[in-house]
């Protein structure tokens, strides 16, 4: 579902340059929950953001669902991105919009008819357990509830892939577990492929099938979670 081949990214700021990720190859199957773990500055976020081309890699190719995204013209890329949802550490909700309108946002952009948007948002509210919060604003919600809105918005266009950027790092342990079990539930129910980055071992152990350990922009270990982390 996700194929990264020889991905590198060099950031240039003035005369300085940082090679954030170096020649990464990674192949993630349909329906997998794949985790990338590493210290701060290891290159996790850069790698994740190349998958939907929020970050343009300096070298290499990105394929999602068999379609090569690198090199697509802007309009076509925008359409392909609807197959890739994303959630964030700090939720990135629109403060001035209700829960319903936050979730509806990508559907409005895609110019769906109003009635279809309403029905789809109702479905999503139910999926994430926020039926009673539809008319509230983000400031009225707990962290866990905000992330539920983020998840519903990410799933609105029925994507094949969900990218999770430190999605539980701003949450307390109990809420983290609730969000992780929601992600697992969604993975089982919808067959969606999940790629997450985290600095927390617990997140990897609790829901990932496979894991890559990234350090200095390179994958230093990769395998089934049980083999990578539970070795004697
Ligand atoms: P992680 O997500 O593992 O913390 P990042 O991908 O954010 O790692 O960063 C990897 C490296 O790239 C770090 O050295 C970081 O300082 C650098 N970096 C990240 N984003 C930028 C940017 N926009 N401009 C310059 N350097 C960056
Ligand atoms: P909080 O930050 O308030 O702890 P949570 O993420 O734990 O937020 O969830 C908010 C509420 O939704 C909780 O009361 C929880 O019991 C409920 N809830 C959790 N998962 C589901 C679900 N899949 N469907 C419906 N309700 C749920």
TrEMBL record:
Protein name: ATP-binding cassette domain-containing protein
Lineage, top ranks: Bacteria, Bacillati, Bacillota, Bacilli, Bacillales
Segments forming domain ABC transporter: 2-232
GO molecular function per UniProt: ATP binding
Keyword tags: Amino-acid transport, ATP-binding, Cell membrane, Membrane, Nucleotide-binding, Translocase, Transport
Domain of life where this protein originates: Bacteria
Residues of the full protein shown: 1 to 232 of 334
Species this chain originates from: Paenibacillus artemisiicola
